[in-house]
């Protein structure tokens, strides 16, 4: 059993029957009252974000999570299908468990967080930055690069990303999967 002094960013805890990951936490100390520990929590098995406050020293219920590397295979009516790179076992997961499904491409490696108590997948995380090919983009105007003007470009997964005017069709670009923003052009 853990207590509030063990809270850390990224920790997954069980609260009221649901799982939450700690986004941010801190401690409030006053002269007269006992210290309080607060945390901003994001739902792992639901889409809720909450704030929770405990008295210092209260018990919390951390959940042990295992991170495994899976490979994305395909999407069908059952959901997004992934394969464990070690056991070759396949699993189909709902779109709500994937953090940026619009950037998933076949054979891409992802991290799947698995609850060790139930052996159930909890979420799928893409790498922070991925490289994708631009499949469609309007041509930019020559000499119009002084300003930070962006244009929409479609990448190989079908997602639309705003890119600078100098990015052309057929080029590789790096995308931040957390924000969905263009990072840089990649040389082949």
Automatic annotation (TrEMBL):
<feature type="domain" description="Translation elongation factor P/YeiP central">
    <location>
        <begin position="67"/>
        <end position="122"/>
    </location>
</feature>
<dbReference type="InterPro" id="IPR008991">
    <property type="entry name" value="Translation_prot_SH3-like_sf"/>
</dbReference>
<dbReference type="Pfam" id="PF09285">
    <property type="entry name" value="Elong-fact-P_C"/>
</dbReference>
<keyword id="KW-0251">Elongation factor</keyword>
<dbReference type="GO" id="GO:0005829">
    <property type="term" value="C:cytosol"/>
</dbReference>
<keyword id="KW-0963">Cytoplasm</keyword>
<dbReference type="GO" id="GO:0043043">
    <property type="term" value="P:peptide biosynthetic process"/>
</dbReference>
<dbReference type="InterPro" id="IPR011768">
    <property type="entry name" value="Transl_elongation_fac_P"/>
</dbReference>
<dbReference type="Pfam" id="PF01132">
    <property type="entry name" value="EFP"/>
</dbReference>
<dbReference type="InterPro" id="IPR020599">
    <property type="entry name" value="Transl_elong_fac_P/YeiP"/>
</dbReference>
<dbReference type="InterPro" id="IPR001059">
    <property type="entry name" value="Transl_elong_P/YeiP_cen"/>
</dbReference>
<dbReference type="InterPro" id="IPR012340">
    <property type="entry name" value="NA-bd_OB-fold"/>
</dbReference>
<dbReference type="InterPro" id="IPR013185">
    <property type="entry name" value="Transl_elong_KOW-like"/>
</dbReference>
<comment type="function">
    <text>Involved in peptide bond synthesis. Stimulates efficient translation and peptide-bond synthesis on native or reconstituted 70S ribosomes in vitro. Probably functions indirectly by altering the affinity of the ribosome for aminoacyl-tRNA, thus increasing their reactivity as acceptors for peptidyl transferase.</text>
</comment>
<dbReference type="Pfam" id="PF08207">
    <property type="entry name" value="EFP_N"/>
</dbReference>
<dbReference type="InterPro" id="IPR015365">
    <property type="entry name" value="Elong-fact-P_C"/>
</dbReference>
<dbReference type="InterPro" id="IPR014722">
    <property type="entry name" value="Rib_uL2_dom2"/>
</dbReference>
<comment type="pathway">
    <text>Protein biosynthesis; polypeptide chain elongation.</text>
</comment>
<protein>
    <recommendedName>
        <fullName>Elongation factor P</fullName>
    </recommendedName>
</protein>
<feature type="domain" description="Elongation factor P C-terminal">
    <location>
        <begin position="130"/>
        <end position="185"/>
    </location>
</feature>
<keyword id="KW-0648">Protein biosynthesis</keyword>
<dbReference type="InterPro" id="IPR013852">
    <property type="entry name" value="Transl_elong_P/YeiP_CS"/>
</dbReference>
<comment type="similarity">
    <text>Belongs to the elongation factor P family.</text>
</comment>
<dbReference type="GO" id="GO:0003746">
    <property type="term" value="F:translation elongation factor activity"/>
</dbReference>
């Amino acid at each position: 059993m853990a207590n509030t002094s063990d809270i850390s960013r990224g920790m997954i805890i069980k609260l009221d029957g649901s799982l939450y990951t700690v986004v941010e936490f801190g401690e409030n100390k006053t002269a007269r009252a006992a210290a309080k520990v607060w945390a901003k929590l994001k739902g792992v098995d639901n889409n809720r974000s909450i704030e929770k406050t405990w008295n210092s020293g209260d018990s919390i219920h951390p959940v042990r999570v295992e991170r495994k590397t899976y490979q994305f295979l395909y999407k069908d009516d059952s959901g997004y299908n992934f394969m464990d790179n070690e056991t070759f076992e396949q699993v189909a997961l709902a779109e709500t468990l994937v953090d940026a499904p619009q950037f998933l491409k076949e054979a891409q490696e992802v991290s799947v967080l698995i609850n060790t108590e139930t052996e159930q997948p909890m979420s799928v995380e893409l790498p922070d930055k991925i490289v994708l090919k631009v499949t469609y983009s309007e041509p930019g105007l020559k000499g119009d690069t002084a300003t930070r003007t962006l244009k929409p470009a479609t990448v190989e997964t079908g997602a639309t990303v705003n890119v600078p005017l100098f990015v052309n069709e057929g080029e590789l670009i790096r995308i931040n999967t957390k924000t969905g923003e263009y990072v840089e052009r990649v040389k082949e």
